[in-house]
Specification:
Blueprint (H helix, E strand, L loop, with lengths): L1 H14 L12 E3 L4 E3 L1 H9 L7 H10 L8 E3 L5 E4 L9 E3 L6 E3 L1 E4 L1 E2 L12 E10 L2 E9 L13 E9 L2 E5 L5 E5 L5 E3 L14 E3 L1 H4 L27
Parallel strand pairs: 10-13, 10-14
Antiparallel strand pairs: 1-2, 3-8, 3-15, 4-7, 5-6, 9-10, 9-11, 11-12, 12-13
């Protein structure tokens, strides 16, 4: 047992989930011998590092996954819940065999389900926020639009907009292009608009246990919903998982 713990300490940092690739972010300027990042992009790099995750939580998620962080529902069954994978247009995804021409439906599996909310936001996501502007860069959100079309300008009635820097519980920190940070506070009545195929409410079929009081954004462990992911851990007994 002691040897196992020592090995976990050694291998965990290198196997933690990787932050978003900075090369894919806007504002990246390449030079002959170095790379420049605008202040807003550099802050995204720093905030997305896995070292921000508390040490104990890192060990727990290594063993049992991080898909339960921020989750609102847990599927009750021997196997995980199976549902069709959707594309950006909300259509079911299929793979065609180049040799036979046969189509195979793609499926996803979920033991935990996260309703539309702050746990589904990731660093560098773009937000348009409508709500009450309390001043001092504090907004109480009524509606959030996640990742709007890149070439579309925010309408005049938007309270604040920017890229996600951090998520903790029901508090979202965003930063605009000028490097100004704002705090966005959400509640159970806040509505979210995600791109098609993302941020779907939990399925109505099957047996689901509501665990939002424990792991949801407003739950006892809600402060860690910003570390929500899709990793299932090395000790999970989810039968029939791919």
């Amino acid at each position: 047992m002691l040897i196992t713990l020592v090995l976990l300490i050694g291998i965990f940092p290198s196997s933690a989930q990787n932050p978003p690739d900075p090369m894919t972010w806007p504002g990246l300027v390449l030079h002959d011998n170095h790379i420049d990042l605008k202040p807003v992009d550099f802050s995204l790099v720093v905030s997305s590092q896995p070292d921000k995750e508390p040490l104990l939580l890192r060990y727990i998620t290594r063993l049992f996954g991080d898909d339960w962080l921020g989750a609102d529902w847990m599927y009750i069954g021997l196997g995980a819940y199976r549902y069709p994978a959707l594309d950006k247009n909300g259509q079911q995804l299929n793979v065609t065999n180049p040799l036979t021409g046969m189509k195979t439906t793609l499926w996803k599996n979920a033991r935990f389900w996260t309703d539309p909310g702050p746990a589904l936001l990731a660093a560098s996501d773009t937000l348009w926020v409508w709500g009450y502007d309390a001043g001092s860069h504090m907004v109480y959100a009524d509606n959030l639009l996640v990742n709007p079309p890149a070439r579309m300008a925010p309408p005049d009635d938007v309270s604040v907009f920017g890229r996600v820097i951090a998520v903790s519980g029901q508090t979202i920190t965003i930063q605009d292009l000028e490097g100004i940070r704002s705090i966005v506070s959400v509640d159970p009545y806040t509505t979210y608009s995600f791109p098609k195929g993302e941020g779907l409410p939990h399925p109505k079929d099957g047996l689901w246990l509501n665990i939002s009081w424990l792991t949801g954004p407003g739950g006892l462990l809600g402060r860690y919903d910003g570390f929500h992911g899709t990793y299932r851990g090395i000790l999970r007994l989810d039968f029939n998982q791919p």
